Amino acid sequence: MSDSQPNQMHLRPQAQAGSALLPVMLLMFLFSAIAIGMVVVVRIEISVAMRFVQATQALHAADAAVALALTELRAMGDWTPVLAGAVQSVRSDGIFAGRKDLPGGGSVVICCGSSSVAGRLAGESALSGAIARRTLPWRPFLWAPLAALLPGSPLGRLYVVVFVEDDEGEEDGNGSADANRRVVVRAEAVQADGLRRAVEALIEREPGDPLRGLAPAVRLLRWREVR
Length: 227
Description:
By secondary structure, the protein is an alpha+beta fold. Helix content is 41%, strand content 24%. The radius of gyration is 31 Å and the shape is elongated.
C-alpha cells in the first residue's frame, strides 16, 4: 500500500460532506422562496380585503349623504330653485370649486376638470344611452367631508358630494324647473386615492296638508347603486 492511499481515504469524507452541502443549500433557497411568496400573497389578500372594506364604507357614506340631503329637500315647498342652481345645502363646504382637504389627510377635486367629481359625472352622463341623462344638468346641492356631516365618524378620509337632477321622465323640456315634484338625487363618496362609490335615488315631494295635520314628506320611488 502506497503512502498516498491514506491521504485519499482522509479526503473522501470531506468531498462527500461538500457534495451534501449543495442539496441542503438548494432546499434552503427553495423554502425561502416559498416563504417569501406566501408573505407576498398574504399582503395582497390583506390589501384586497382592506380595499373591499373601504369600498363598502364609501357606499354606506353615499347612502347617508342622500338621507342628509333629503332632510333639507323635504322642508322645501318647491325644488325648482335647486334645479336652477340657486339653492344649495346649508351644510356645504364653501363654494363648489377647486380642491377640498380631508380631515384624514389628502384632498379631492370636486370641480372642475375631467378628473374632478363633477367632471367625471358629466363625462359619464354624456356617454349614457338615455337621451335625458345626456341633456339634463346635474346641480351640486351638498358637498362636505363626511366627518363634518356626521361628527364622530371614523371615516375622515371620505368626502361626499350630492347632485340633484330633474326627473328624466319629465317631458316639459326644462331641466331647471320641477313640474312633477320628482327629482333624482345622486350622492358620491370619494377618497383621496380615487376610490369612489355612488348611489342614486328618484324621489317625489308630497306637499302635505296643514289643515289635516299632514307635514310635507318625501317618498322614495327608486334607489340604485351606480356602477
